[in-house]
């Protein structure tokens, strides 16, 4: 576990210790519900917009797929073995 993760875990337990488990759980559940609802609203808006303006939806879809394609190229390039000075192959580091 990284130092950052340990710090976050300790901080979380401190907060739970201060406000109490029940209060923390209720507040966390409320925040999670609100977040999920906002995501659902945005998803419905995108679906509605795709019907209302299919050209814009198509442009966004193309842009998203190009970004995925570029990310895949970067991943493959990072994993592709390269030759070092001695001619031996090694894996390239990120």
From TrEMBL:
Residues of the U3 small nucleolar RNA-associated protein 20 C-terminal domain: 19-77
Domain of life: Eukaryota
Recorded GO CC terms: 90S preribosome; small-subunit processome
Region (Disordered): 43-94
Pfam families cross-referenced by the UniProt entry: UTP20_C (PF23099)
InterPro entries, per database record: SSU_processome_comp_20 (IPR052575), UTP20_C (IPR057525)
Compositional bias (Basic residues): 59-74
Full protein name: U3 small nucleolar RNA-associated protein 20 C-terminal domain-containing protein
Organism of this sequence: Ridgeia piscesae
Organism ancestry: Eukaryota, Metazoa, Spiralia, Lophotrochozoa, Annelida
């Amino acid at each position: 576990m990284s130092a950052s993760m340990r710090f976050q875990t300790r901080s979380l337990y401190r907060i739970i210790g201060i406000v109490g488990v029940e209060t923390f759980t209720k507040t966390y559940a409320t925040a999670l519900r609100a977040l999920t609802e906002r995501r659902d609203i945005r998803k419905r808006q995108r679906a509605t917009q795709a019907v209302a303006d299919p050209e814009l939806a198509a442009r966004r879809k193309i842009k998203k797929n190009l970004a995925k394609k570029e990310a895949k190229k970067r991943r493959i390039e990072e994993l592709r073995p390269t030759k070092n000075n001695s001619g031996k192959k090694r894996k390239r580091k990120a």
